[in-house]
Every structure is written in structure tokens, then in C-alpha cells.
């Protein structure tokens, strides 16, 4: 039983929820009241547009189980967006795309900003509604093109192949007979992933043909293979990546406009998964990785894109693991060199300068989105 499932069960019970919230405030320290939230937001520099704009913005609040308690989650995106809108005197109000009147309410706005949750249900809702909003000539962040590959590793792999980007060798198929033939000649171990999953959930290492065949039989069964999303099984597709045996870390690089930030992640001892392990290091990032992250963002056509890499010493190159338009953000210090917080600024191809400061990447992103909108 996953931690996520247990958490949802607790939050569905009012009595258990009060105990859970109280305990989280003591231990995790990730639920904030208004005073604490404001102090937290003000740790970063204010980001301003080059010139004033006259637009109306519909801001979607993150899914929040704690609003009735007067609390906001530390990782919530909308308070960072809201700070930017206030600092730039942009007219906005809250917009709820989950209501039945979402089409009528959208008429009020020129731009709708929606940090969607990453679960399959929300992604399905978001893709359907953003498609309609854009047909209404409403600008959306994320756009339909951006949301199309968000939390969908299979679709992202199509883009890597289309644009000849150096991803970890990946095998994706919806044909069981082809998959079985592939497994007979594969080099093990293989890394198997579900298409929608983060923090290493839904990632398994298959050490031999027998293990892989068992998994494939489940995937291509009538119900498919269970995932940690109890309502969504892995059905009729495989997503296999080569195991990069000489990779000792993940490198996450965030690219927004000409700004880049990032950090290193390391697996726990005895594990191969760095994502979700909580072992971070912030230090200089090689030019090769910065330029590659920038190019991936440009090819994807995203306002913001975080791309995760491994480095293969044997291949002497960085290889893409996956990319995402939304990630977990705990701090306005997403990069630091020698203890100094900042960001890289791309001045030309393979040329980057370091600028000190603390920045919310959500604000950098919104600046980029709005300035492109009013050009």
C-alpha cells in the first residue's frame, strides 16, 4: 500500500484529517499560515515585466486539502504566481476549471494559469479543457502542447526521437508479440516505468527474462498491471529504458527563457533511483548539460521545462531520463555555486553567465509567458 494511498484515505476522514494536519505542522513543517507564507515568498527577489501590461488573468489554485484550516502547502504553485501578478499590478481573480460553468467563467480572462496535479485523472481533465479553452482563443499556461507530454513518458519519448535528442535508449511498444521478441534478445537489467509517475514511483528494475515476461503478461492482460494509482493500471504498453550501469547521479536542469538552474541528486545506498531519495547537491553544472537542457526546452516549445539527465562515463555524454513542465519546488534557491544562490543566463550558444540571487522559478516562468503573450 503506497504512502500516497494512505494519505488520501486519511484526508477523506474529517477526524483523522485534523490529527494528520496537526502532526504535519509539527514534523514536516510544510503547511503554512498566511504570515509564514508571506515570509517564505519574500525570500526571493521580485521579478518585474519589462513594461506594464493590460490583461485579465484567471488563476487556478492548486488542489488543496488544507484550505479550510487556513493553510497552504509549501510546494503550492499558485502563491508564487499570485505574488508575481500583484507585484506587476496585473488584474486577476481565482478561476475554477472543475466547476460545471468553467466555459462561461473563462470568458472573463485573457490568460488562464493552471498548475495541474500530476495524477492521470487530473491530466485527463486538463487536456480536455485546455483544448477547449484554446479553441475559445484563450491563452493558457500550460498550453495544450505543453500539457500533452506532461507526466506522460511515452509521449515525451516520441518527442526525443522526433528531434533526435540524446535520451537513454528507450523501447516503447503497444504490441505484445514485439515486446516478447524484444525481451528474448534484451540486455538485462532493464528499467521498466509506468508512463505517469514521479519521485521514482512506478519504476522497477527487471533483472532477467523471467521477471520481464511476468510483468509483460500482466500489462497485456484484460485488466492490466496495477500501479500506485488504484484507478489507473498500466495497460497495453511497455516503457523500457536501458540500465546505465556507470551512472552515479541524476542531474536536474530547469530551463525558462534564457535562465537555467539545477542541482544533482544521488541514490540511497543499494538503490539505483536518485529521484525521490532526497539526496541533493548544488554546485557548478557543465556547459554541455546546460545547453542540452536549453535545446530540449526549445524543441518541446515549453515556457518552462525541467530535464533530468544521467552522465555515462563510458559514453562520455549526458543522456536524458525525462522532462517535466512542473516539478516539486521547495525553495527559491534552485542553484548555488560555492554557497552563492543564483541562476545561469544563456548569452549565446554554449555560453553562460552566473547571476547571483534567489528566484521563484514560477515567477521567472510567468514573466516569460506574459512577455511572449503581449509581443
Assigned CATH class of the largest domain: Alpha Beta
The fraction of residues assigned to DSSP E strands is 15-25%
Question: What's the architecture of the largest domain, going by CATH?
Answer: 2-Layer Sandwich
Order of helices and strands: HHEHEEHEHEHEHHEHEEHEEEEHEEEEEH
What is the name of the CATH superfamily of the largest domain?
ATP-grasp fold, B domain
Q: How far from one another are the termini?
A: 50 Å
The CATH topology assignment of the largest domain is D-amino Acid Aminotransferase, Chain A, domain 1
What structural class results from the helix and strand content?
Answer: alpha+beta
Give a quick account of the main beta sheet: strands, pairing sense, barrel closure. 8 strands, antiparallel
Molecular shape: globular
**Which stretches of 5+ consecutive residues score pLDDT under 50?**
1-6, 14-28
Domain count, please report it: 4
The total beta strand count reads 18
CA-atom Rg in angstroms: 21 Å
Number of helices, counting only DSSP H or I runs of 4 residues or more = 12
Give a written overview of the molecule:
The radius of gyration is 21 Å and the shape is globular. It contains 12 helices and 18 strands. Strand 11 (250-256) and strand 12 form a beta hairpin. The chain has 375 residues and is an alpha+beta fold. It starts with a helix and ends with a helix. It has 4 domains: 1-30, no CATH class; 31-148, Rossmann fold (3-Layer(aba) Sandwich), CATH 3.40.50; 169-242, ATP-grasp fold, A domain (Dna Ligase, domain 1, 2-Layer Sandwich), CATH 3.30.1490; 250-374, D-amino Acid Aminotransferase, Chain A, domain 1 (2-Layer Sandwich). The longest helix is centred in the middle third of the chain and has 16 residues, at 120-135. Strands 11, 12, 13, 14, 15, 16, 17 and 18 form an 8-stranded antiparallel sheet that branches. The protein has a 4-stranded parallel sheet with strand order 4-2-5-6, sandwiched between helices. Strands 7-10-8-9 form a 4-stranded antiparallel sheet, sandwiched between helices. It has helices spanning 3-11, 14-27, 34-41, 78-87, 102-106, 120-135, 144-149, 153-162, 176-185, 209-219, 287-300, 361-374, and strands at 31-32, 56-60, 72-73, 91-94, 111-114, 139-141, 170-173, 190-193, 203-206, 238-242, 250-256, 259-266, 279-281, 304-312, 317-324, 336-337, 340-348, 351-356.
Amino acid at each position: 500500500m503506497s504512502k500516497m494511498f494512505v494519505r488520501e484515505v486519511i484526508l477523506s476522514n474529517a477526524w483523522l484529517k485534523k490529527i494528520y494536519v496537526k502532526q504535519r505542522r509539527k514534523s514536516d513543517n510544510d503547511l503554512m499560515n498566511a504570515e509564514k507564507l508571506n515570509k517564505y515568498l519574500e525570500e526571493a527577489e521580485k521579478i518585474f515585466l519589462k513594461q506594464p501590461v493590460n490583461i485579465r488573468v484567471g488563476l487556478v489554485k492548486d488542489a488543496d486539502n488544507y484550505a479550510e484550516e487556513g493553510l497552504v502547502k509549501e510546494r503550492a504553485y499558485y502563491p508564487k504566481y499570485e505574488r508575481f501578478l500583484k507585484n506587476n499590478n496585473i488584474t486577476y481573480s481565482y478561476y475554477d476549471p472543475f466547476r460545471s460553468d468553467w466555459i462561461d467563467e473563462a470568458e472573463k480572462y485573457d490568460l488562464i494559469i493552471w498548475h495541474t496535479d500530476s495524477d492521470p485523472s487530473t491530466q485527463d481533465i486538463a487536456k480536455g479543457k485546455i483544448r477547449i479553452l484554446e479553441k475559445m482563443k484563450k491563452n493558457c499556461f500550460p498550453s495544450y502542447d505543453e500539457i500533452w507530454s506532461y507526466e506522460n513518458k511515452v509521449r515525451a519519448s516520441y518527442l526525443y526521437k522526433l528531434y533526435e535528442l540524446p535520451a537513454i535508449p528507450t523501447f516503447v511498444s503497444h504490441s505484445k508479440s514485439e515486446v516478447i521478441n524484444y525481451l528474448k534478445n534484451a540486455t538485462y537489467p532493464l528499467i521498466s516505468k509506468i508512463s505517469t509517475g514521479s519521485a521514482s514511483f512506478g519504476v522497477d528494475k527487471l533483472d532477467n527474462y523471467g521477471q520481464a515476461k511476468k510483468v509483460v503478461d500482466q500489462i497485456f492482460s484484460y485488466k492490466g498491471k496495477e500501479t500506485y494509482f488504484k484507478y489507473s493500471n498500466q495497460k497495453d504498453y511497455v516503457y523500457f529504458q536501458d540500465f546505465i550501469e556507470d551512472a552515479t547521479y541524476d542531474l536536474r536542469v530547469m530551463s525558462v527563457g534564457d535562465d537555467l538552474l539545477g542541482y544533482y541528486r544521488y541514490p540511497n545506498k543499494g538503490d539505483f533511483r536518485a529521484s525521490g531519495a532526497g539526496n541533493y547537491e548544488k554546485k557548478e553544472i557543465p556547459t554541455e548539460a546546460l545547453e542540452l537542457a536549453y535545446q530540449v526546452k526549445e524543441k518541446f516549445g515549453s515556457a518552462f521545462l525541467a530535464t533530468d539527465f544521467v552522465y555515462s562515463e563510458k559514453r562520455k555524454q549526458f543522456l536524458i531520463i525525462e522532462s517535466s513542465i512542473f516539478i516539486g519546488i521547495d525553495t527559491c534557491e534552485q542553484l548555488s555555486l560555492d554557497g552563492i544562490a543564483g541562476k545561469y543566463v544563456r548569452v549565446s550558444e554554449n555560453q553562460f553567465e552566473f547571476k547571483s540571487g534567489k528566484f521563484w522559478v514560477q515567477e521567472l516562468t510567468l514573466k516569460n509567458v506574459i512577455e511572449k503573450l503581449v509581443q
